[in-house]
Amino acid sequence: MPLEIGDDAPSVAAQNQDGDDVRLEFDEPTVLYFYPRDDTPGCSIEANQFQREYETYRDAGVDVYGVSTDGVDSHRSFCEAEGLEFDLLADPDGAVAAAFDVDVRGGAAARTTFFLADGKVQAVYESVDPDGHAREVLQDALEDGRATLPE
């Protein structure tokens, strides 16, 4: 079972698609979505839809990160091919997934999304349908007041 609403968010670190070290503390509103593999149909749909909503997420003060067990080079190629502006975190040893109790059977992370803020898990989405998920998470955050758009 992944972390639950109200649980403390773990501090995690991983390399992004550029090989830069990224450390996340989750004090600010953040979407962290786990996905199985780069360059697969469902993962491409999900990434493209987060990219489509990315400006609205940013306007609402929400950071977005994708995480899979693929490496830095795979993430770099995926970002370039899909035109992604947000970071994809490489988790080849499954350490980030383990910190969130996300299943990594067969070497691929289960499709799970977390909304985190103030150092806590605010929302959890399991068994995600990639199509429409980015909009769903954004709408939920705006409706629940976890994120707000400027006037």
From TrEMBL:
Monomer. The keyword Oxidoreductase applies. Its EC number is 1.11.1.24. Residues 1-21 are annotated as: Disordered. The keyword Glycoprotein does not apply. It is an enzyme of class 1 (oxidoreductase). Pfam families: AhpC-TSA. The active site is at C43. It comes from Halopiger xanaduensis (strain DSM 18323 / JCM 14033 / SH-6). Coiled coil: none annotated. Residues 3-147 form the Thioredoxin domain. Belongs to the peroxiredoxin family. BCP/PrxQ subfamily. It catalyses: a hydroperoxide + [thioredoxin]-dithiol = an alcohol + [thioredoxin]-disulfide + H2O. Keywords: Antioxidant, Disulfide bond, Oxidoreductase, Peroxidase, Redox-active center. One of its GO terms (cellular component) is cytoplasm. One of its GO terms (molecular function) is thioredoxin peroxidase activity. GO terms for biological process: cell redox homeostasis; cellular response to oxidative stress. Signal peptide: none annotated. This is thioredoxin-dependent peroxiredoxin.
